[in-house]
Each structure stands twice: as structure tokens, then as C-alpha cells.
Amino acid sequence: MTGPGSEPLRVAIAALLDAVISSLAGIYDVLNGASMMGLVDPDRPPLRIDIVGERPDPLNLASGVQAEVQAAVEDVGECDIVIVPSVLLPAADWQKGRHSKLTDWSMRMHVQGARICSACSGVFLLTETGQFDGRDATVHFGYAKAFAKPSGQRRRVIRSIAGRNGSIRSSASASALPPER
Is the residue at 162 inside a domain? Predict the structure, then answer.
């Protein structure tokens, strides 16, 4: 959290066509919770959170529900944390290169020192940056094979709630745990 006189942490939540509204909005609401409940000084919030996408327009997400993109990636030159929400992939098929502006931007933010995080299947966007090549990650069990597909690099899915590799994080979402047998 921020201390007296410090700037709020800048958090960017990536909005992409494949995103799931519950993940995107849920992350936004949880991170804004203390501010929305009046538990922090409104003039000094601990976090400044933006939903970032290719254009600052309404965006129809995977289920057809709209999300308001607040800032275009070219207008966000720095941030402290980038979060990619869960995505919904028909037949577990990630189409590489479909979100190149977001992929390139997230890599630039990481090079500048931002912590990079994914909620569950949001990790697919981050795989295009090479940040998960040879690394472990947490992803929905339904996407495990697609995630581990050869990209020239080994990737291993770990069966846990969260994965951590330096400044890169991946986490399970509410439906990511495999069914009980």
C-alpha cells in the first residue's frame, strides 16, 4: 500500500475480446473495494485502476457483455501492475497475434518494471511475450493441454491456486480447480 505522501500504485487491467466479464469486473471491484467503501482518503487512494485496451471504447467481451475501456494502451506509458483477466477460449484455442497491441504493451510495461499478473486463462495473452517460456503457471484444467503446447519452449501447468515466477504471477479463478473424482 502507499504511505504518506506517496503516489498510488497504478494498476492496469487488460480488456480484450476474449475476456470474461466476471473476472474483469471482479478484479476491478475488489481492487477498488476500500475506496468504494470509504475506507481510504478519497484524495489519496492507494490504487489508481484503469481498464486498458486497444481503444478507449465500449468492448463486447466473450459473452457479449460490454465493458468500458477507460484508456488505450498507447496512452498508458507506465504502470506498476498489469493484470490480464480470465479469457474464454472456444475449444481451448488461443489465436496467436490476435491481440498484438496488448501483448506488446504488456511486454513494454514488464521491461519498465511492472509486475505482470494473469487470472487463470488470461495467461494465454502473456505467453505471446515469451514470459512463460520454460516456466510454470496456473491455468484452468480445461486449458492445460493448450497451454503446454510446444512454442519452442517447455511450459508446465502447476496444480495450485497461484504460480509465481519472479515478477510474473498466474492464479486460478473460481472455476479453475479440477472436478472431484
Answer: no
